[in-house]
Amino acid sequence: MKKALLIATLLASTFTAFAQEAKNDKPIFTVVKEIPITSVKNQARSGTCWNYSTLSFFEAEILKKSGKTYDLCEMFVCNKNYMDRATVKVRMHGDAQFSEGGSAYDVLYVLKTYGICPEEAMPLPGTMYGDTLNNFNEFFAIMTPYVDAVAKSTAKTITPNWKGGLQGILDSYLGKCPEKFTYEGKEYTPMEFSKSLGLDWNDYVSITSYTHHPFYEQFPVEVQDNWRQPGSWNLPIDEMARVIDNAVMNGYTVAWGGDVSEDGFTRQGLAILYDTETPQDLEGSDMARWLKMTAAEKRAKTIQLGFAAKEKTPTQEQRQKEFDNWELTDDHGMLIYGIAKDQNGRKYYMVKNSWGITGEYKGTWYMSENFIVAKCMDFLVNKNAIPKDIAKKLGLK
User: Fold this and answer.
1) CA-closest candidate to residue 51, choices 108, 114, 119
2) What is the pLDDT of residues 200-228, one digit of tens each?
3) How many other CB atoms are there within 10 angstroms of residue 360's CB atom?
4) Among 190, 168, 181, 194, which residue's Cα sits nearest to residue 83?
5) What pLDDT, on the 0 to 100 scale, is given for residue 288?
């Protein structure tokens, strides 16, 4: 009897140990703050994260202000934005980039200048060429050489006729932007609809943090997709981080743009600022063994540790170094909408992606606070979400 009891106890202990080990294989998140947002979308085979993330941001702003849920049309924004970008390239005689990418400001500019329509007022993405989602491969393979031919023409003068041809390409692949449409029984123009959303487009500002420009002043971040050259307010790294945190804790989302081409950014829904320079807590290892590893071996071992791995602490100097040497790149736009902590107490931001219902968390990424701060290129936020002392320094109060 005692032997059987002892065996049972040992088995129970072993099972508990295995259960705890399995439980610790993955992070267990406790939500600290979660802001209501609209549904996850899928940009599919198109470089339009800037568009999807920023329209999601404005949809969340409308939801916060009025409680109304909208599905705003990404292809309306693309149609207007690509024509504007082509016009700039032609004016620059080809000395400007024309590509699928863009910035959060592009969306804001379209909303202010051309208006917007609901998703239902234009053909659904992909349907103009028989697909079920965006596929810009053929679209840009046709449009790019067309724009290049005009921009790099050797003619002394060019006519405005090229715009009609380009508009035909845009309308064929994206759908024609409506001049009028009916939504919930009422007729609107795109500008009337934009105004009806109840947002003040002057409430939105861009924030960044670099040392090659003065703090508390604006400058256009020097990346190719920031082609309209709007200014971003430049803050010290700790104040930039405070703006993000203050926004979320007070119910405001953040349209974040930054670098996801990092080992710590996984396709399964995690992003951690792995520290591959200092020894990790590896069983049976010592300092000498760690120091003998190659950089690739350190990365592999750190990734194997997963969410339990050590993180680097972001610094102003490191951000600047990585920006200047092209390590900190302008890769992806996403929507920050919440804060959570794992079982080890590490803080994460809950981030809505635009890759459809995918990954471990069905379209949400849990990105550590260190990752968000270190890899941020810039972000768009409601100026009312900025802490009062920082807003005062920027002259926004």
Assistant:
1) 108
2) 999 999 999 999 999 999 999 999 999 99
3) 14
4) 168
5) 59
> What number of residues does the chain have?
397
pLDDT of residue 275: 84
Burial class (CB in 10 A: 0-12, 13-18, 19+), 83: middle
Coil, helix or strand at residue 376:
strand
- Given a contact cutoff of 8 angstroms between Cβ atoms, the answer to whether 307 and 346 are in contact is yes
**Percentage of residues in the chain having pLDDT higher than 90:** 83
Measured distance CA(333)–CA(29) in Å, rounded: 23
Looking at the chain, which runs of residues are DSSP E strands?
30-34, 181-183, 186-188, 204-208, 218-219, 232-234, 254-258, 270-271, 332-341, 347-352, 364-368, 376-382
Cβ–Cβ under 8 Å, residues 377 and 210: no
Mean pLDDT of the chain: 91
The pLDDT of residue 2 is 37
For residue 278, the model assigns a pLDDT of 75
Task: State the DSSP code for 274.
Answer: B
Three-state SS sequence of 222-264? CCCCCCCCCCEEECCHHHHHHHHHHHHHCCCCEEEEECCCCCC
| Interatomic CA distance for residues 139 and 20, integer angstroms | 51
Does residue 271 surpass a pLDDT of 80? yes
Strand (E) or helix (H) holding 386: none
Which residues make Cβ contacts (< 8 Å) with residue 48, sequence separation at least 6?
A: 74, 78, 100, 102, 134, 136, 354
Query: Using CA of residue 226, residue 229, residue 233, residue 237, what is the dihedral sign?
Result: positive
Q: At what angle do helices 104-113 and 74-91 cross, to 10 degrees?
A: 100
What 8-state DSSP symbol labels residue 121?
G
C-beta of residue 376 within 8 angstroms of C-beta of residue 332: no
- Alpha carbons 313 and 346: distance in angstroms, whole number: 13
Place of tokens 């802001």: 35
* Stated pTM of the model: 0.91
Rounded Cα distance, 154 and 91, in Å: 13
Q: What letter represents residue 45's amino acid? A: R
